[in-house]
Write a structure and sequence with these properties.
Blueprint: E1 4-5, H1 6-13, E2 16-17, E3 22-23, E4 25-27, E5 37-40, H2 52-57, E6 62-65, E7 78-80, H3 84-98, E8 102-107, H4 112-122, E9 129-131, H5 141-147, E10 155-159, H6 168-175, E11 179-182, H7 190-193, H8 196-204, E12 215-219, H9 225-234, E13 238-242, E14 248-256, E15 259-266, E16 269-275, H10 280-295, H11 300-306, E17 318-322, E18 325-330, H12 336-348, E19 354-359, H13 368-374, E20 386-390, H14 394-400, E21 406-410, H15 413-418, H16 420-423, E22 429-433, H17 441-450, E23 453-454
Parallel strand pairs: 4-5, 5-6, 6-7, 8-10, 8-11, 9-10, 11-12, 12-13, 18-22, 19-20, 19-22, 20-21
Antiparallel strand pairs: 1-3, 2-7, 14-15, 15-16, 17-18, 17-23
């Protein structure tokens, strides 16, 4: 069954098709393109027009272009438009308009992608589900996700992110969700926003895209919660708070063997579920997800049951046994809030020496050194036996720690990775965390090279 015909795509974008075609998918990357895809020649680090010939050779049904690329015949299957990105947005808008199911949009400073995956997996068996791929949450990721959406989708989960002011509202208006969820508001991208209130205002703008009557699901226990509620009220939304004092809240959570068993109260119903993680922040997001899914018309008990099939994405807090140590790989991103959550997970696990290996937290603005130094006073830090650090910002934390907890410090994560044999010992529980650009994942790679990994769900002989 085709996703778009040439006639439908031309009508949606205002473009001109050189010939009739039908596409079964949409791609922006020739490395992963599949036969039948529409190749979208976006201009980013490289001009996608340079790869159109290659895409067609690999079986693309057509290409979305603003000009006929060099080496491509004029009668090749092309959809020509004045500008490719606005045309992709138009195709996404048309994809959203023809879909009659429910749309759930998710944003937040921490946990967007893992929460989106929770929602996708929890909806198993409740119809045709469509969700954003990976972290496709920006100015091209959201329209791409909408353009890829089959018309008969029952539930769509759209992830929406930002780096600068003014990004979320237009994407939310494009997605037109029935339910919008904010996971949390934290000190991330402070360089662009100046203060946590600026971030809250940007996150709250997601509610401006809600269809009426829409539902706003937001964290109940933050200092900026009143500001988020103002945005939800302005949008005329039904408001559901999740958190310790929310309409959706955990009643009891018990951690053991790397899993957490939860009893929660969600919109007046009591449900039990299990998460394959020791992270309490995942528990809270799961409660919020259940509230969002219920508000979208999903079966709450079924959604809670399927949460046990979810695992944290790679680099985002998964716990694994790794050749004599227990590793918490949380190296994908970091800010003070998510680092505090990672340290809390580390503190909660028992059985050996607790070691944290930390890379710089980036985009924190002029107070970045103080924010790094301040992590020495995090309540969970008292349970950590040894802290290794990498990067110029993390030096502030290294110097603030008592000598008994102060491990190695290196200028870069790569230098720390070269000394991997000095970082941990058999029996340790190890957290590795830092902003992606700090490249602290190189330490994870070094640990995996030197020890045999047993990932969650795998069996050993």
């Amino acid at each position: 069954m085709s996703l778009w015909t040439s006639q439908d795509a031309a009508a949606a974008t205002g473009g001109r098709a050189t010939r009739d075609f039908a596409i079964t998918g949409i791609s922006i990357d020739t490395r992963t393109i599949q036969p039948g895809d529409l190749f979208v020649a976006l201009q980013a680090a490289r001009d996608g027009h340079d790869f159109v010939a290659q895409a067609l050779e690999k079986g693309a049904a057509a290409a979305l272009v603003s000009r006929i690329p060099e080496g491509v015949a004029p009668d090749a299957p092309l959809l020509t438009v004045p500008d490719v990105l606005p045309a992709l947005e138009a195709l996404g808008r048309a994809g959203r308009a023809r879909m009659q199911g429910k749309v759930i949009a998710i944003t937040g400073s921490v946990g967007k992608t893992s929460t989106k995956e929770m929602a996708r997996i929890a909806l198993a068996g409740q119809g045709r589900i469509h969700a954003a791929e990976a972290s496709y949450n920006n100015h091209w990721g959201v329209p791409l996700t909408l353009a890829r959406m089959p018309a008969d989708t029952d539930f769509a989960i759209i992830e929406i992110g930002m780096n600068h002011p003014g990004e979320i509202e237009p994407l939310a208006r494009l997605a037109r969700p029935h339910v919008a969820m904010i996971t949390t508001v934290a000190a991330a991208h402070l360089e662009a926003f100046g203060a946590i209130e600026g971030i809250a205002r940007e996150k709250g703008a997601i509610f401006r895209g809600l269809l009426q009557p829409g539902t706003a699901v937001l964290p109940e226990d933050l200092g900026v919660t009143p500001l988020l509620r103002d945005y939800a009220d302005e949008a005329g939304a039904i408001v559901i708070g999740f958190g310790e004092h929310g309409m959706a809240r955990p009643i009891k959570a018990e951690t053991g063997d790397g899993v957490t068993r939860v009893c929660a109260r969600v919109l007046g119903e009591t449900v039990d579920f299990t998460l394959a993680t020791a992270g309490s922040h995942f528990v809270m997001n799961a409660v919020g997800v259940l509230a969002a899914l219920s508000a979208a018309g999903a079966d709450l008990a079924e959604a809670a049951r399927h949460l046990s099939d979810w695992h944290p994405p790679l680099g985002r807090g998964a716990v694994e046994d790794l050749g004599g140590i227990r590793l918490i790989d949380d190296a994908y991103n970091s800010n003070p809030t998510s680092l505090a959550a990672g340290l809390a997970t580390l503190a909660r696990l028992t059985g050996g020496r607790r070691v944290a290996i930390l890379g710089d937290m980036l985009e924190l603005g002029p107070d970045e050194i103080a924010l790094h130094r301040g992590m020495a006073d995090d309540p969970s830090m008292a349970a950590v036996d040894l802290v290794h650090t990498a990067g110029p910002r993390m030096r502030a934390l290294h110097e603030a720690l008592p000598e008994t907890r102060r491990g190695l410090h290196a200028a870069t994560a790569a230098e720390l990775a070269e000394r991997v044999g000095e970082l941990v010992a058999t029996g340790d529980i190890v957290l590795v965390k830092g902003s992606k650009s700090s490249k602290v994942s190189t330490v994870v790679d070094a640990l995996r090279r030197t020890r045999q990994s047993t990932l969650p769900g795998e069996r050993t002989a």
